[in-house]
Design goal:
The complex is a heterodimer of chains A (385) and B (201). Chain A has 385 residues and is of the alpha/beta class. Chain A has helices spanning 23-39, 60-69, 88-101, 118-121, 129-145, 184-193, 206-222, 245-258, 268-274, 282-296, 313-338, 376-384; strands at 2-6, 44-47, 75-78, 81-82, 108-111, 149-151, 159-162, 176-180, 196-199, 233-241, 278-280, 301-305. In chain B, strands 1, 2, 3, 4, 5, 6 and 7 form a seven-stranded mixed β-sheet that branches. Classes of the chains: A alpha/beta (385), B alpha/beta (201). Chains A and B meet through helix 5, helix 6, helix 7 and helix 9 of A and helix 2 and helix 8 of B.
Chain lengths: 385, 201
């Protein structure tokens, strides 16, 4: 099972000091957070994609490549990559490039985004959000699995004889998670392709998650990818940890009360009871997280949100220490002991598992129309001369 | 596909206690019960849910007693709504409750529209404010709405109010009995992916 962190990259004023980090500080903080996550032994770091203030996360592959260059082991992912408003051709190219740069140490999570005007800003219609997610991913999937693509659809200019480059590393497309809060269509989409399904889980009652994961598992089996138990499930989590539970509550309350998502609404206590939010000691976080398994079954990836609502970098790094030292090692052991036989891990690129294909000899791409290769150009000009 | 024992939900949006809105809601509830003796009638008093409604608007989901109220509306076979008239329209709290609901879950729900107000000069509020709202929500409001001004609770106009209640409840009863709405239909629905893909063609 994989444990990690996910972020949306918000720039939020620290309500206890009134200080707002600059964009520069926040972007650099994301790198520090990722490096710390690796240092404390977490498996995954995922960054968001937004195209509006107060977020700084508009270029996930740039950020991930920078993190990738400064880390060795941690898997790079997204939370989420906007499949609705980003050109699927650019997703294919950008993420395949990242995959090569980090030797396969990446995957991605697709999402629709929830900021209305982003759709018209990118020339799309929010009323077609699901249709965009369906059509754009169908194209992305084709671009990664077929060398030469002929394609036409409703939402993008048609492609004839198009090859998305670079091709996926060793011919293995990046693993895709489909993220959703409550859209059954997205669970259905993940099941259809046999991809992973990530339930956002946080900020919402667990019933949403339970329903969608059950639907995804059922349909995963229906489409013949394996048993329901073999479906690949990820969950979000939302924690604030201090060695002493009362300290955690006291310190986190002002951040909770002013947080962009739920601030000025339900009390910290009510929200903790109604949603997966857990503010307390390492032991409390461990128990709550283990309880997720009771309603989704054995799952493959647990990501925690630890850096939002204006929490200062120093505090976030302390959270990572507590996660890495006291929470995750116990969770690893406990989940492993509980896991039913035959439940797979989340797929990793063969190179991450240490498998470099014997036939990794380069296959040179030929131009679809002329049949020539880049290295033919010399002999071609020789012939012409 | 009328049920032997339909589930009827009455939503009362009065803010004071005692409230004339609740008085009208109780009268409508009694008349519905007389017409549909096997009906299960559930009364939702919005005043008790005011804080959870505000929380749900901020957090995006209803919880606790509000979640139960929302579920009972979804599961209902007939809906009676009663709002006080504030500033010429339904109250903000009343609207907020219906803002929280998912309209897909209300499709074809037979609905009786009712309101109270300080004077009969507001009586068109039912057709100018309530009816468009419940049409937008996809419900099936019956033709006759019931508006009760303060003066209708006594004197010569009270008989007319009784007559309007009677007529509206008759229409509502027929609508509930004839309804083919299946409250469970929404939950069973999964659109197969090939169908989702084909939408782009």
């Amino acid at each position: 099972m994989q444990f990690g962190i996910f972020t949306v990259g918000d720039v939020t004023t620290d309500p206890t000091t009134g200080r707002t980090p600059t964009e520069h500080e926040r972007i650099k903080a994301q790198i520090e957070i990722a490096k710390k996550a690796e240092e404390v032994g977490l498996d995954v770091v995922a960054v968001g994609q937004h195209h509006n203030p107060p977020f700084v996360a508009s270029a996930p592959t740039t950020t991930l490549a920078y993190i990738g260059a400064q880390t060795e082991n941690i898997l790079l992912s997204t939370s989420t990559t906007l499949i609705t408003t980003t050109d699927p051709v650019r997703i294919a190219e950008d993420y395949a490039t990242l995959q090569h740069l980090v030797d396969g140490r990446m995957d991605l999570m697709l999402g629709r985004g929830n900021t209305g005007p982003v759709y018209p800003w990118f020339g799309k219609d929010i009323r077609q959000g699901i249709e965009l997610a369906v059509e754009n991913y169908a194209l992305l999937h084709k671009l990664w699995h077929e060398d030469v693509v002929n394609w036409s659809g409703q939402h993008r200019t048609a492609l004839q004889g198009f090859t998305s480059t670079p091709r996926p590393l060793d011919g293995v497309a990046p693993f895709v998670w489909h993220g959703s809060i409550r859209s059954p269509e997205i669970a259905e989409q993940a099941a259809y392709y046999g991809d992973g399904f990530f339930a956002n889980h946080i900020f919402w009652p667990k019933e949403h998650t339970q329903q969608l994961v059950n639907l995804y598992r059922r349909r995963f089996a229906h489409y013949g990818h394996g048993t329901q138990e073999q479906a690949i499930v990820g969950l979000g989590g939302h924690v604030f940890i201090r060695p002493n539970s009362q300290d955690a509550v006291r310190e986190f309350r002002p951040y909770f009360d002013n947080a962009p998502v739920y601030g000025n609404g339900p009390s910290l206590e009510d929200f903790s009871q109604q949603t997966p939010l857990t503010v307390g000691s390492p032991q409390q976080v461990i128990e709550r997280t283990l309880s997720f398994r009771d309603y989704v079954g054995d799952y493959q990836r647990q990501l925690f949100l630890v850096d939002h609502a204006g929490l200062p970098l120093k505090t976030v790094l302390e959270q990572l220490d507590l996660l890495g030292e006291e929470v995750v090692p116990v969770l690893r052991k406990e989940f492993e002991a509980l896991r039913a036989p035959g439940v797979p891990d989340a797929p990793l690129h063969p190179r991450v598992r240490g498998v470099v294909p014997d036939d990794a000899t380069p296959v040179n791409a030929r131009d679809y129309w002329t049949g020539t290769r880049a290295e033919d150009s010399n002999s071609l000009s020789d012939n012409l001369a | 596909m009328a049920k032997d024992s339909p589930n009827i939900v009455v939503v009362s949006g009065g803010l004071r206690s005692p409230s004339t809105t609740r008085l009208l809601a109780d009268e409508l509830s009694a008349q519905v019960s007389a017409n549909l003796p096997n009906a299960n009638i559930d009364m939702i008093e919005l005043r008790e849910l005011a804080h959870p409604i505000a929380d749900a608007m901020l957090s995006g989901f209803p919880s606790g007693a509000l979640a139960q109220a929302v579920e009972s509306v979804y599961a209902s076979d007939g809906l009676v709504v009663v709002s006080p008239t504030f500033s010429g329209s339904y109250s903000g709290l009343f609207k907020s409750f219906f803002d929280i609901l998912e309209r897909e879950r209300l499709t074809d729900l037979p609905t009786l529209l009712a309101a109270t107000g300080g004077s009969s000069r507001h009586s068109l509020m039912i057709d100018h404010a309530l009816r468009p709202l419940f049409t937008y929500l996809g419900t099936a409001p019956v033709r006759t709405g019931v508006f009760a001004a303060t003066q209708d609770f006594g004197g010569h106009s009270s008989a007319e109010l009784g007559e309007r209640i009677h007529r509206s409840v008759q229409e509502f009863t027929r609508a509930v009995t004839a309804s083919t709405r299946d409250p469970q239909a929404f939950e069973q629905e999964v659109t197969p992916f090939t169908e989702l893909l084909a939408r782009g063609d």
